[in-house]
Amino acid sequence: MPKMKTKSSAKKRFKVSATGKVRAGQAGKRHGMIKRTNKFLRNARGNTTLSAPDAKIVKGYMPYDR
Prior knowledge:
- By secondary structure, this protein is an alpha+beta fold.
- Helices cover 33% and strands 15% of the residues.
């Protein structure tokens, strides 16, 4: 049986932690920072953990990174 392919876009954007959670960068920080509130910018620093339904979809894109 041939190997399944990993979605290239998913492997660039997500990482799976040792416990199986999916880590992703925060959304909404590419441009337009002036109109964002300081509270939003503080809370959107660093990375975040995806919710369980979203993580299930992403793990389907990366069959060997579980």
